Structure formats: structure tokens, C-alpha cells
Amino acid sequence: MLFTNIWYVAEASDTIKDKPVKVKMLGRDFVLFRDQHGKAVCLSGVCPHRSADLSQGKCEPDGTIGCPFHAWRFDQTGKCTKIPSNKDPVGEIPEAARVDSYPTEEKYGYIWVFLGDDLENAAPILDMPEYTDSEWRHVTHVSTWNCNQHWAKQIDLDHVHLPIVHGIGFGGDNPVRPPDHTVDRRPDGGFETLIVGKTDITSGKWRELRDTRSTVTSKFKFFVAGFTSRGKVAVGGADAGVYNVFYQFTTPIDEENTRMFYTFFRNFMMEPENDIEHLRRNCRNVYQDKSLAEKMLPKRAPDVPVYPQITAELEDKLMGAYWEVLQRLRKNGWQIDRVQLDALDKGGDYRVIPSPARRAEDSGKWVFDEIPRIASTGKSQRDVA
Ligand SMILES: [Fe+2]
User: What's the 285 CA to ligand 1 centre distance in angstroms?
Assistant: First the structure.
């Protein structure tokens, strides 16, 4: 299941330079580029003239992107500003010669794109206070998972698997049982939990940081923007002030592929030569999770909680909070109707994610109609029609 009206991480900032870059998200094509002032621009990637891929075009000195087919130029608002083959290239330009333009923000080394038409009601991009704080050092990683966004996010939110998959035990009499904890809902739409337990650091350089089996606190948060998880783990025991802080941003490429962006912070062993160990420790967990998530079935994760009949007591809390978020997004009418969209794609009717301009203006002036979404009544649009 995929959702519109969310801020997603589209790319790492430093990958967008002077050439347009194609980015696929929510099953649609987008082009990312920078205008003449360096501001990141995200447009729907299909030219409304003859359907060329705009990312094969080029960035023009006036801040527009030129289509690779007939060099029509589109500005940061998505409007066509020049048709070179016209008698007067900037004269008669059809009103529908425009593509959707999506709001962008450049934050924390990433280009964030708002994919939807209801910016006012969107959950805000989270704060990342460590990013500009010299007490912290970070490494990043990006990985494409061949699985639905939900399978990727589920394994990221789950903590019952930590001892099983990653060998990170919780200590106590039963080291595979997570300590008791509560999950709190936040006003921004996300949720958080604090887990206090004991664990072992059994290998690598980090072992020098503390005695084994000292108490460890893990603060875990979920934010709707970016489908972000943030974890703060006290590496050196609860009172040592030594932390590994990770941020994970989940961006659906399509129903069966997901991009996972990671930023890992530490406030210890700050020497650059420890970056490799920092990345290695975190990525080991990432790739253990990836190998499981990519084999989960059905390939397109179901729209219902997985699976209420056998959900266990401990998993209920985090997973329950996550399902509440998804239900809310669906009730808002923001979930893409993938069955109907598939039929449209197969029938040769390319649809785009609606941008905020579609709400503000007459939506008749577009070449491509918007993707179908599940109506806010909770009933599929194809049933309502
Ligand atoms: Fe994991």
C-alpha cells in the first residue's frame, strides 16, 4: 500500500548537480534538477507534449529543464515557457503544456519532496538536531530493497526480532523477551517508545565502551514524514552519554521496490577512521533485515494488519501504533488505489501524483489525469463509481 500527501526523501543532496536525475517514487516517474539559483526542483517526469522522459533532457541557463525530444522548456512551477519550433517560441503556449511541480525542501543532506496535493494537512519534516551539532559525527547509507514499503518498514519498526536476527539480546532471564514498555502517540501523528534493558556488546571496537550487560536505554520514534524511524541507543550504558542515533527514511519506488536511506550518528570515537566500523555495525543489521524483507509474501503487502489473528502481546504496541497511522492516512483518502491504477497503466492511461496546483486551479488544464486514490470514506473508488 502506498500513500500520497507525504514528504518523502527523494535523493541525497549531493547527487543532484547540474544534470537532471530521474527518480521513481510511488510507481511514477519524476525528474529532479536544480534551477539557476541552485534550488532543487521536482517535476512529474513525463513531457505532456509527446511523452518523452524529461530526465533525459538538460538544465537550461534560465533555470528551466529542456525536454530531450523537442526542447520545450518547463520552469520550476511546471509551466512550459518556450516552444522553440513555434514562430514565436515564447508566444502561443497551450495552457495544458505543463507538468505537476512538487514542493521540495533540502534538509539534513537530503532532498525532500512532497508528493501530493494537500500540503496544509501534511505531517511536518522532523527535526534532526544532531546534524548541525559538532558533538555528533555521521555516516550515511542508501539501499534499494526489492520489497513493498510495508515489509521494509515493518522489519525496521519491529524490535522483537533483534535477538533472533541480529543477536542483540535484551538481557534478563529471557534475553529474547523485550522489556515491558509503553508506546505513546505524539500530536504530530507519530509515536514513540522507550525500552530499558540489558544487552551485550560482543564484538568489535565498541566493546571497549562499557562493561558487558550494563543497562541500555533505547528511545525509538516514528514520524509520518519520510516514514522515518529514529532510534537513540545508549551504547555505553544508560548514564554514560554515549549514543548511536540512527535515522531511517523509507521511500517507495513502486509497489515492489523501496529505497532505504540511513543516517547514523555517534558522539564517541569521533575520529574519522572509526566511520568504517560505525557504518559496518549498522549496515550489518540493515542487510540482515533486507534479506528477510525481500522474501516476504505476498509481494505486495496486504492492506490489513499482518495478521490480527496471531499477533502476540508484545508486538501489539509498536505495530498497533503503526497500523493506526496507516489507517488514518487511508481514511484521509491518501492511499493510492493500486488495483485501479494497474488497470489504467495496462490500458495505456498514464496517471500522475496530483500536485498542490491541482487543488488551487482548474484541474481541466492538464494532459495527464491524477492517479486514483481510495476514497476518504474508506470505500474503494472503483466501488463508488
Ligand atoms: Fe532488524
Answer: 6
Say if strands 137-145 and 243-254 run parallel, antiparallel, or are unpaired: unpaired
Q: Is the peptide bond before 20 cis (omega within 30 degrees of 0)?
A: no
**Hey, which CATH number is domain 142-329, 3.40.50.1970, 3.20.20.70, 3.40.1550.10, 3.90.380.10?**
3.90.380.10
How far does residue 286's CA lie from ligand 1's centre (Å)?
Answer: 7
CA of residue 165 to ligand 1 center, whole Å: 7
Residue 47 contacts residue 55 (beta carbons within 8 Å): no
The dihedrals phi and psi of 15, each to the nearest 5 degrees, come to -90, -10
Q: Partners of 260 in the beta sheet? A: 143, 250
Ligand 1 centroid to Cα of residue 50, in Å, is 45
Residues 62 and 49 sit within 8 Å (Cβ to Cβ): no
What is the architecture of the domain spanning 6-121? 3-layer Sandwich (2.102)
Q: How far does residue 363's CA lie from ligand 1's centre (Å)?
A: 44
Give distance in angstroms: CA of 162 to centre of ligand 1: 6
- Nearby residues for ligand 1 (ion, Cβ within 5 Å): 289
Enumerate the domain spans of the chain: 6-121, 142-329, 338-384
pLDDT in tens, 136-182: 999 999 999 999 999 999 999 988 898 899 988 887 788 888 888 89
Task: Write the pLDDT tens digit of every residue in 180-232.
Answer: 889 999 999 999 998 887 766 666 777 677 665 567 788 999 999 999 999 99
Strand-pair partners of 32: 21, 42
